# Entry
Amino acid sequence: RVVVGEALVREVGTVVEIIRHGRDGEVLVDFVHPPRQDRVLVRELRPSDFAAPIATLTRGMCYGELSLLYNTRLVTTLRASEDSEVYVMSRRGFKEAFNRDSAMFEEHVKLLDDVNLLSTLVRSERWTIARSASGVLELEAGEVVIRQGDTQKNHDFLYVVKSGSAIVKQETTDADGEKTQRSVSTLRRAACFGERELFLQLPTAEATVEAGPGGLTGLPI
# Structure
């Protein structure tokens, strides 16, 4: 049994024949009041009785995102099991929030095209990465981005040098327990750092990375 129409104007009937399958499918419905049979589009139907729940959503969880992402109709029903406060995002708002290109989007794509670590990706994949970039990081000379030994700090990003330079330093301890810090390398445009901590999920940073003499502009992704 199915319900056709909205809450204020609706009719209950039984599907007796599937005329056409698919998203724009059509069925033959046997209605009760008034008694008749009519062809109805599938997208206008909904169950007259709720089926057993397949999932329970709690605070912070979302519903309907797959329909927005893939432009398909909903194939399940969401019903409140108690008084709830739910935030709703329209399809238009969703697309504007997640598909918009920033003012520097093309510039970031060109930067990522030069990153050796990302060379195995197709350009559309680098576009996706550029869209998800978390703004631009601007640091003055000597400012630290990652500090050796830090625990889980700034480990959620891969940093790409956009302009200026980044100096990688590593501290070692000799047999007498004396600590020495030395410069390991200088990174310039399209070089990246933080990838080992991110990809290998290292518990602490292996080296210190700070802005070079002319400062650093980086792209966290």
Summary: The CA atoms of residues 171 and 181 lie 4 Å apart. The longest helix spans residues 91-99. The helical segments are 65-70, 91-99, 105-113, 123-131, 195-199. The mean pLDDT is 81.
